[in-house]
From TrEMBL:
Name of one Pfam family that matches: GAF_2
PROSITE patterns named among the record's database cross-references: GGDEF (PS50887)
Name of the protein in its database record: diguanylate cyclase
Species of the source: Duganella flavida
One MF term in the entry's GO annotations: diguanylate cyclase activity
Reaction(s) the record says it catalyses: 2 GTP = 3',3'-c-di-GMP + 2 diphosphate
Top-rank lineage group of the source organism: Bacteria
GGDEF domain ranges (all copies): 752-891
Amino acid sequence: MFALDEELAQWDSILQEAQGAGRLPPLASLAWHLRQRDPARAQQLSVEITPLLDQLPPAEAAVQRARLLLVAAEQAWLRGELDTAQYHLEQALLLCEQAAAALPTAAAACRADACWTLAWVSNDRGVSAAGDSWLRKAAAAARIAEDPLRIDVIDAASGICDAFGDWQAAQQHWNGRFGTDLTGVPPIAAGWISDFFGTCAFQRSEYGRAIGHLMLSFETALATGQIRRAIIVATNIGNGFTSLNAHEAALEWMQRGLDLARPTGWPLSIGMCLMQTAETLRQLGQRDAAQSLLREALNTLSLLSGSRAYAVALEYQGDLALDLGNHVAALDSFTRLAARGDALCQNDFQSSARRGQAHALSHLSRPDDALAAAQAALALARDHGDASSQIAALNVLADIHTRHDLPGPELMMAPNAVLHYLQLALEIAATIEGYTVPGALLDVAAREYAAIGDYERAYTIALRANAARDQTHSKEATNRAIAMQVQYQTERAQTEGEHHRQLAAAEAQRAEVLQQTSATLEHLSAIGQEITAHLDAAAVFRALDRHVHGLLDATHFSIFLLEPDGETLVCTFGIEAGKPLPALRVPLSSPSANSARCVRERREILIELDEKGVTPHLIPGTLPTLSLLFAPLRVGDRVLGAMTVQSLQAHSYGERERLIFRTLCAYGAIALDNASAYRQVAATQEQLLEKNLELEQAYKALEEVSLTDQLTGLRNRRFFLQNVDADVALSLRGYEAGQHRELTECDITAPKDLVFFMVDLDHFKEVNDRYGHAAGDSILVQMQERLREVFRESDYVIRWGGEEFLVLARATHRDEAAGVAERMRRAVAERDFELPDGGRLAKTCSIGFACFPFLPDQPRLLSWSQVVELADQGLYIAKRSGRNAWAALYSTESTRAEGVFPRLMQQLGDAVADGEVRLVTNLEGPLVLGGERRRIGLSSDLELG
């Protein structure tokens, strides 16, 4: 599920030496465990893995493909693309189901990870009930996989989610599951269990204890590649220090979270860090900075407006609006927060929303509403033992009584209502370990004591207020806050301008070069247009080589490009005296290579050597050149590599030659950068094509599933309706071709007969009632096996509904139909069915069938659907007349199509008696026809009439 950093290093080492199919295990492990550490590389490895999967057995390939879908899904989830993530995860679950029979353990582990990610996708949508359900499914799958590490992690995560809703119930439920002594517990599980303990402590307002647990969780998250978790925990630690009014420590942890979040681009991670930093800045009095960060946080989190993080941002927005005196906006924010808190079923939001509403309502001159909201907030906080929320609610109650003349509370233990609530708040504050009482709260208490004449106590509390302010608003914390704000504004401005700078860099460089080479402007401009028109690096090399030799004295010309690691230069193109140079790799740190020095120093280097002297740093196998000119290949602030021209003549490169070479370098850099970008675009397009192919394959698989009954594996009614018309049309074409001769009902030479069989298990409801639905399902599965024994491969065997099956025999003559029906009846009646508990059960079936065309000698035929209903009538006759039988309805020559069908439906008995319809059956009567029981003799050819 997660892996330590040293394990990744081992897989990387194995991968370097692996060849062919042996690369798949380390590739798969790295792609999975880099999914948050390095998403771009994880995606590259996934692309390399895909073709290797064809060499695996089907079940193993399905599990690996599911893993690749999980990698893609996690990246989409982290980017806030929740619909895309959910689609990938659902596809992964389907693949896991396919592989479950052959690889139960691996498939179950994969299914656990898919459900795990679906839980976080649901939570980010704000659907906490669905998130809890997916976590339970993940835990069940982990137990099937017998993976204790996954079980511990998933259970701890479930405990964390429960703690946000009701920490007391969560603690009671999960404390027995986890021990406080984590000695010997694997680091990954220990981190999540510590997170659970820290969350419970945080909800109890035991912030110091919570911070201790969360710090262990932060370290393990970092060491195991759980970057998003590390960011969340860092901001929670910062929030804990903020709750203790230790703002300097809070800002330090906010900075850690921001440093981790910024490079990822993940909206929820960045939004959380911004909003938590904004709240700390607000408490330090930096309201403008807090407002700017909070606005950015809400904008970043807009795609995840159902998440808990967005609800926290609403709470901070409301508190900031109160500080700024904008009580209408504050009321709006807290009303929205109340709705989110109720939807998420999380008490901390419910309490803080009502506390904020009370504060805003009080300032909007609605004292009665304010008092009711504040009392509701206090009651919620007390019910859940939230000391911090109780202090906030009591502070608001005191403020309401200060501003409005309202009756005091019952059992008031102070001279007035304001002091009553303030004393309660101070008493609760004293119970929170490490908590610094806010100076503003102490100031209010001091003023109230002074107002009633208790100046000594007022003076003592005022001294405490000053000390609290000094501790809370320390110069170091304020300076750090300002520095963070300046840093963020600078980085944001750089980010916003980066795109524009990149677009302008090539043109600016080109303009600079053209200005320096005014003497050859027209010629070099044409050269530049030619070079930059190429999108293939090899074509760029050839164009540069041609123009370098045309404009300069160049015995030697070579191009060095930086490798992606930024540590090595590679000679990708080199010509000396008309002969290609061998490939050469130069460390960028090389003290002797002029090409490396040119790139390091980002400047042009000209070297003039004495003919009689020794050429230093000569590359083996190259000529002793005397003039060497090196120039960096730059695009804006980026250096791609270096170009060099060298001559056997001394002083070959004056100012003009250097300007020309500099211009060629500029054009070459632009062209090579464009070629690299084009390769990346082409690779992206190829990946998109592969993804489209995957989607098409997935669609075909889903279409196949939609046409198949999931219990029996038979085709379903939808499949039948899609295909029956084609067979009917083929039958009718044969019928029309034979109209030149008279056809009788049993004429076996009639073209393309279709026989519709309706098969129904007798007394099937008794199976479900007596043995259970599992037994019923088992019998239905065995029933489809017996159907397949009797009918041809080309026949359509359809599960029509419940215990009823429809078979379209596509190549059975109507005179053979009775024999087929009898074989089907015997296949069921003469062999017991097996029950799941090992027992056996005898069952019978009833069958009705009818042939198409039903009236070949009449101008208007019955439709296939009417023939199906005739087969159903035959089934009805067999059922009502004793079961374990078959019955079929045929027309006679005297039958008239205009009237036979409704008469058959309404007066079937009379139709048979009158000879208009012939009934063929293996029943010996009495038969139930037209609602009456009749005894009809059995003729020698099994026909009744």
